[in-house]
Fold:
Amino acid sequence: MFNLASVVLDPFTNESSWILKTATRILGGFRGADARCNFVVTCTADEAKAFLGPLADQLLVFCDPDRSFVKSLGLTELPAFVFVAMDGTIAASAEGWNGAEWRKVSDKIAVATAWAKQSIPAASDPVPFKGTPALA
Structure:
């Protein structure tokens, strides 16, 4: 069993595409940690491949076309960054894009997995923005 470090995306919104590069960098920073870094995409497998392109082969991807996982997490906005602990509890989450909030999630993952903390936000990251409805 592993912790999950999940970036939840809605591939049909601009907001999720705006954060894709940043999310990939953040998840990549946890490669080798005791966490399964992944994207959760609210679409079918074919739609996820079209949205993620080569990232679909580089990271673990879960498809949630009916948004049942998103609903179980209690999310209201996407994109989101969620840390699901090994016991299934949500240890931390951030919705929309705000570097300081995503850093809090990242820091929880780093402490739980004895991993290096990441610099979030980075200079190349987008400005903060509100997400879109998670259950739309």
